[in-house]
């Protein structure tokens, strides 16, 4: 119908490009909007689809069928991309909700801490120093207790290992020395009982050690809080001294 054929070319911007053309256009330039620029797509505007050159023949219906198939395949890929985008958006919303909840919790905790600090501001500097000194002494005491418990734990662990080695040795000797089997068996049972007692004591020492560590952590936190309160108290006193000295200096200038 047309002397030189008529039509258009069109191509998406995937890595290799795909496209189709109507008669009369050698190829179609591809494009890829910014929201299509996923890792498996080409960067925006860099795809190129090869279109068929136009011919004045009766192959238009076949060409249309191929074009529809390509469009359907592209549509499926776009649906998959849309599903991925929807999933990522939902994940982002869930993360935002979680962050908002954490922020609210932190705001509540900060408010509670501020209220506690406000209540403690009326405490005298001497009392705060006494609290700090007591906390320091408690920390030192707990540290020494922790060191002693650790030493007891190490000794008990070493004895347990030595007894376990001795038990294995006695078992091997019992299998070899038939003449002294009964004596070795009694020695093995005695060592086994002692090892059970040592394991029980080891568990007790572990429990005491854990309790001491927990107490030490709590006291360290209390010490840090008291030191901060003391520093805030000293800072408030310094501000009061400055505010009292400023009126006197103004009177002298007058």
Brief overview:
This protein is mainly alpha-helical and 254 residues long. It has 3 helices and 4 strands.
What order do the helices and strands follow? Answer: EEEEHHH
Please state the structural category.
Answer: mainly alpha
Biggest sheet record: 4 strands, mixed
Strand order of the largest sheet: 2-1-3-4
How far apart are the termini?
106 Å
Radius of gyration: 41 Å
What is the number of helices? Answer: 3
Number of strands: 4
Mean pLDDT score:
71
Portion of residues in beta strands equals 5-15%
Low-confidence stretches: 1-58
Name the shape in a single word. Answer: flat
Helix content: over 70%
Describe it.
Helix 2 runs antiparallel to helix 3. Residues 1-58 have low confidence and may be disordered. This protein has helices at 60-120, 125-176, 181-253; strands spanning 9-12, 18-21, 28-31, 48-49. The N and C termini lie far apart (106 Å). With 254 residues, it is mainly alpha-helical. It is flat, with a radius of gyration of 41 Å. It is built from 3 helices and 4 strands, in the order E-E-E-E-H-H-H.
């Amino acid at each position: 119908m047309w002397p030189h054929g008529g039509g258009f070319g069109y191509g998406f911007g995937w890595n290799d490009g795909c496209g189709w053309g109507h008669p009369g256009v050698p190829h179609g330039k591809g494009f890829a909007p910014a929201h299509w620029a996923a890792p498996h797509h080409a960067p925006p505007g860099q795809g190129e689809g090869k279109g068929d050159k136009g011919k004045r023949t009766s192959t238009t219906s076949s060409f249309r069928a191929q074009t529809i198939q390509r469009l359907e395949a592209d549509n499926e890929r776009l649906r998959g991309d849309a599903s991925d985008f929807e999933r990522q958006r939902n994940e982002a919303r869930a993360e935002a909700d979680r962050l908002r909840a954490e922020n609210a919790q932190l705001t509540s905790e900060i408010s509670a801490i501020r209220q506690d600090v406000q209540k403690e501001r009326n405490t005298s500097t001497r009392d705060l120093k006494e609290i700090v000194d007591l906390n320091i002494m408690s920390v030192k005491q707990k540290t020494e207790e922790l060191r002693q418990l650790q030493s007891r734990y190490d000794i008990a662990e070493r004895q347990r290992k030595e007894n376990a080695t001795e038990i294995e040795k006695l078992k091997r000797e019992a299998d070899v020395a038939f003449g002294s089997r009964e004596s070795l068996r009694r020695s093995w049972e005695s060592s086994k009982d002692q090892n059970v007692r040592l394991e029980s004591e080891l568990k007790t020492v572990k429990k005491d050690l854990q309790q001491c560590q927990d107490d030490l952590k709590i006291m360290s936190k209390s010490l840090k809080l008291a030191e901060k309160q003391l520093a805030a108290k000293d800072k408030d006193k310094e501000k009061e001294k400055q505010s009292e000295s400023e009126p006197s200096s103004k009177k002298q200038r007058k």
